[in-house]
Design goal:
about 425 residues; three-stranded mixed beta sheet
Length: about 425
């Protein structure tokens, strides 16, 4: 159920704009971090003796994955080539007849739809790719599945040749069915996917939102038309990452299921914690930032320079958060924390995510110091890729047979 809160002390619009900013994410998360450092957290202690081992562990992973330290962005595009298969070449071949801008629009279509379908698959689901005979789980499985859906026209209403169907249309999303989702994601009793109904509602709501906002998505609405809006924000051939993030939040905030609201505005990935001053709001915008990171490369292919990368934050999800616990940076105060499943809105999960945001900044700073690299040379988006996300998965596999998160989350398929 959504909860509507009347803000005090600031005009509603000012508070909404603030909670949609990376500044607010770090500021509110830092409040909980300072409490944890002071020993005042109800759920976690911070052990800074583990910061150097954490940085060293991540550096070892980076050097294993990227020996030359030429690290790409942490984005959905990495997952599309899971298993070392050059799937993106297939996409480029399909789009070869289109202009550069049309190709960017199509890639936005794919990235947006795939990221929105990426919120946690659970440990039991996998996707079997008949072309290669490979099976993929978790994020890679969701990416490969959505890639094939897109390339085969699952999101299109267009009738024509194969290339013309490689798009996402608002009307098709509104009419998308659970039967289709079950088919495309190969869901069976012995292959269950977490949050099916949540993903379906997200797709359908996206279709409605696209139609309602021609200023972002055009009169022939598709998510990729956000490219045209962002081109209008380019100055001196530069575009800030924060501008892309703001566009994502402003245009897509209404797709999220009922959560906290100010007046009638859905705040999205924003939660409440009793130890945060003023209004208690703690914003994360994990999927929106992940999506922003995933939209930058198609913009770069248009020759646009992306600036201000480190204004955005690290992603507070279970791989980065799991790394902080598994490496010993965060220590649960009560053993039940590692034995109980929690809803996303619980104070345990909100606090875990908040501490993760700040610790990722600290891990990144330590890594840069050890590698003698600047924020320009090694922005956070590359450290996540190189990086903390991969390290989180690696250490989870070392510690638990199923490689699951150290803390169990009751996911609705729309957050983590």
């Amino acid at each position: 159920m959504s909860t509507e809160i009347t803000a005090t002390g600031k005009a509603d619009n000012e508070l909404i704009a603030y909670l949609h900013s990376p500044t607010a994410i770090r500021s509110r998360c830092r409040q909980l971090f300072k409490r944890a450092v002071a020993g005042c957290s109800s759920h976690f202690d911070c052990d800074f003796k583990q910061l150097t081992p954490a940085a060293d562990y991540v550096i070892d992973v980076i050097r294993s994955e990227y020996p030359d330290l030429q690290i790409p962005f942490h984005s959905r595009w990495r997952h599309f080539e899971a298993g070392g298969v050059a799937r993106l070449q297939k996409l480029d071949d399909l789009l070869a007849q289109f202009s550069k801008q049309e190709r960017a629009i199509a890639k936005f279509d794919l990235a947006i739809i795939s990221v929105l379908l990426d919120a946690g698959a659970g440990s039991n689901w996998y996707y079997y790719e008949s072309d290669t005979g490979m099976g993929f789980k978790r994020s890679e499985g969701l990416a490969v599945a959505s890639f094939h859906m897109f390339c085969q026209g699952a999101f299109s209403t267009t009738i024509g040749d194969e290339a013309s169907k490689v798009r996402v249309d608002a009307q098709k999303l509104q009419n998308f069915t659970e039967t289709e989702l079950i088919h495309w994601f190969q869901i069976r009793d012995d292959n269950p996917l977490v949050g099916v109904s949540g993903r379906l509602k997200l797709l359908q709501k996206l279709g409605t939102v696209l139609t309602a906002q021609p200023q972002f998505f055009g009169t022939n609405p598709r998510p990729g038309n956000l490219v045209n809006y962002l081109i209008g924000k380019v100055k001196n051939n530069q575009l800030s990452a924060a501008t892309v993030f703001d566009a994502v939040l402003c245009s897509l905030s209404e797709i999220w299921p009922g959560r906290l609201k100010i007046a009638t505005v859905n705040l999205g990935d924003v939660w409440h914690h009793p130890d945060v001053s003023e209004d208690g709001f703690v914003p994360f915008h994990k999927l929106s930032q992940w999506l922003t990171y995933s939209l930058l490369e198609p913009l770069q292919e248009l020759g646009i320079e992306i600036i201000g990368l480190d204004e955005l934050t690290g992603l507070p999800e279970y791989r980065n958060g799991g790394l902080c616990i598994d490496i010993g940076l965060l220590k649960p105060k009560h053993p039940d924390i590692l034995r109980t499943s929690y809803p996303v809105a619980s104070s345990v999960i909100v606090e875990w995510r908040a501490l993760t945001v700040i610790l990722l900044d600290q891990i990144a700073a330590s890594i840069r110091e050890k590698l003698n690299m600047s924020t320009i040379e090694l922005p956070l988006v590359k450290i996540l890729q190189g990086g903390t996300w991969t390290a989180g998965r690696k250490i989870a596999a070392e510690l638990r047979a199923d490689g699951a998160s150290p803390i169990q989350i009751e996911s609705d398929g729309t957050v983590l």
